[in-house]
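All the exercises in this workshop are built on plain-text protein records. The record below serves as our worked example for the rest of this section.
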Amino acid sequence: MAGFLKKMFPGMGAEPPKEGEFTLKQLPEDFHVGVDSHSASPAFMEDAHRTALELHKAGAISPADLIRLMHPQHEDMLIAAAERREAAQAKLLQEHPELLGKGGKKH
C-alpha cells in the first residue's frame, strides 16, 4: 500500500505507512473521503428484508434468492438446501405433469 500511496500522492509529505497500516491523516488536506453507511443501517436492512419477503410472496424470486437477500446465518447451507428442494420439485413435476395445478392456493 505504501507504494500505491507514493504513486498516487507523491508530495504528500507523510511517512509512508508500514505494511497493512494506514491513517486518514496521511492523505492530502484537499482529499475527500465519502462513507456510504446507509446500507448497513437497521432501517435500511429492515426495509430491504421486507421488500425481499414481498418479492418472494409474489413469486418474483425463488427461495434461494430470498435467502441471498436476507443474509441469514449458514446462508450457503440454506441456499444449497433450497436449491436441492427446487430441483427435486422440478424433477417431480417433469415426471408427473398431472401434479401441475394441484395443491395451489385456495382463494
About this structure: The longest helix spans residues 75-95. The mean pLDDT is 81. Residues 43-97 form one domain.
